[in-house]
Amino acid sequence: AHLRSIRGANAKKVGAGDIHAHLVSRRYAEFTCSILLILNRGRKVTGEGNANELASNTSGKPSDKPSYRGSAGDMLVNDLDVMVEEMILLLKRLSDVHPTNKKRIIFMINNLDAIITIFKERRVSGRELNRFSDLLVQQRELFVEEELLQTFSKMIAFVQQTETHMSGISAPRGARGVAAPADVVNPEVVESLVHEFASNWKSGIEQINRNVLSYFSNFRNGMEILKQVLTQLLLYYTRFQDVIRKVWRGKPPSFCKDLVSTSVILAEIKKHALSI
């Protein structure tokens, strides 16, 4: 009956909700944890060592150890395996009511995190928890890119396109056997990106911080996502600087003086990561 209800559920029947955790996610997690503990299939975490193992795992993915299976209830166990995938499909159907891809991802993250949190509160682990944890990691990665594109899309696009171009470049070579800068990039575009980032990077990080705080109600989840977004921003900017160094080998243009030091960005990232 529970499996059929999940299969037949949609936004019209259970309510669309907002970007935060839907009631059906909490009910599903409570029901599944109860059944797993009754069947002794869920590995109940006992003792300080195992509890610390879950608490210290920032990825949200528990150790991949087999769950215990009771001798009775094999049919119900199989139904629970199917129910995991049906629940994921239901979350995707519910997320489709949101108008943007970013909001759909946020909805998925909040609901997956709610399910995982209940599993951990009940000290139940197993392949069900692993499945949701893996999916949460994927959704977080998608959110990181979506959030950065909101403020730093020009720089990110430049880095990705230029790196691809440079990896297969066959442009005319200069006297030193190096492609001339104008053959690789548009210097005016690079200068514009340097000045734009120098002017906007700090306000951009502050906006990311505000967004994450408003999107994700779970403190640990929000803190982890904020760190991922800001770390990825630093990586993109480091790659941007690497492109400039490779294009202007030994002869950096005058606008390089406006490049922001990665140590300054890292200090700002640490400040926000500690204040969340």
Oligomer: single chain
Strand runs, count = 0
Beta content comes to: under 5%
CA-CA gap between termini: 42 Å
Low-confidence stretches: 46-60, 62-72, 171-175
Q: How big is the Rg?
A: 24 Å
- Largest sheet data: none
Helix and strand element order: HHHHHHHHHHH
Mean pLDDT value? 83
Basic shape: elongated
Describe this structure in words.
- It is a single chain.
- The chain is 71% helix and 0% strand.
- It has 276 residues and is mainly α.
List the helices and strands and how they pair.
Layout: H1 2-8, H2 11-14, H3 23-39, H4 47-55, H5 74-95, H6 101-121, H7 127-167, H8 181-184, H9 187-215, H10 219-247, H11 262-275
Helix pairs in contact: 1-5, 3-5, 3-6, 6-7, 7-9, 7-10, 9-10, 9-11, 10-11
